[in-house]
Amino acid sequence: MGALPSILDPRSIIVLAGIMGLMMALVVFFMRRSYPPSIRGLGEWALAPLVAFVSTMLFAGRDFAPDFITIVVANFVLFQACILYYAGSQKFLLGRSDTRGWTVLNGFLALAMFWFSAIKPDFQARLLLVTLAVSALFFFHALLYMRHKGLVFGQRLMTGLLLVQSLVAALRFVSAVAGMAGSTLMDASWIQSLYISMYSFTVLLLSISVILMATDRVHTEFEYLASRDPLTGALNRRALLDACSDAFASGRRRVALLMLDLDHFKQVNDRFGHLMGDAVLREAVGRMQRALGDAGVLGRYGGEEFVVLLPDANKAEAMAVAARIKQAIDEPFAADSPMAVVGSMAVSIGVAANEDGRRVDDVLARADAALYRAKEMGRDRVMAAA
After folding, report:
1. Comparing 38-52, 214-228, 270-284, which segment has the lowest mean pLDDT?
2. Domain spanning 6-226 has what CATH number?
3. Which fold would CATH assign to domain 237-384?
4. pLDDT at residue 3 in the model
5. pTM for the whole thing?
């Protein structure tokens, strides 16, 4: 095939890619300011297209500016933009990033670019090195998402884009091996324009994927917070009662409820202050969760009172779970813990199972009555409903 129309020459496509990258950098930057700090990676994702914009402006200066700027620096900046995208994904998915190995590789790549531009000019060698490095980085970036599979469209789009871009770079590498590299970056061949055009669209769509993933993460966090007690992290009362209603409405014959109350908790607040009381509550919930494991759902019913839903337990099994929870609560605080001054905790537990198809309100009332009897008998014990 011959040269493409001048409007589609590589320099025009490179400039267009840079402009799109700049626009998306601004979009992600302003979006980042309105999102909670718990959404990690947005800083790197906002910086990446901006750095890519700088690289495209450097590439567009080919034949007008010194080769060191338009080859060595331009390729270094471009690869660093790809690294920033990867670092953003690591922070988003893992909470941390480590791209030191790729940054070192970028340094060696820059040295190779200098060698094959200033010492021994060879466009094909430069193209082979750059496309191989870019293909590898995009592939490892895609693997990161494939190891953290998500159902959201943004994450699937991101994975697909990374794999496609890795494949395109790999095909460009193969074309260079086959002698179809051309003589310069500005050769208006179809394969050159395809490679650069794919990069342009990838910059745009990667930023769109970022926005979709961050928005979905915010929605998920809001839904989580709406169902959780802000102090302890257990289900709040509304979410707890909804879970109980769903379990009983499912027609399960084996459902049990535990009603728990921390004994003499008011004395902790009175003697040591409410901050200490809050710390004791959080510690109690942590112990309950560990003792409960995957057997049930824990929710804060009110104050120092909690309810455990056991969606697949009869009365005997519920009593065993209650005993495990009580044992965990009874453990004294460690000597080096700030809560050591409290000494230890105690809990009273009422247990009731869904027998004869009772409603959730009936079973909850029976567990509450059992808890009341446990308190009447001296507290610090587990009592089954009559």
Report:
1. 214-228
2. 1.20.1070
3. Alpha-Beta Plaits (3.30.70)
4. 45
5. 0.69
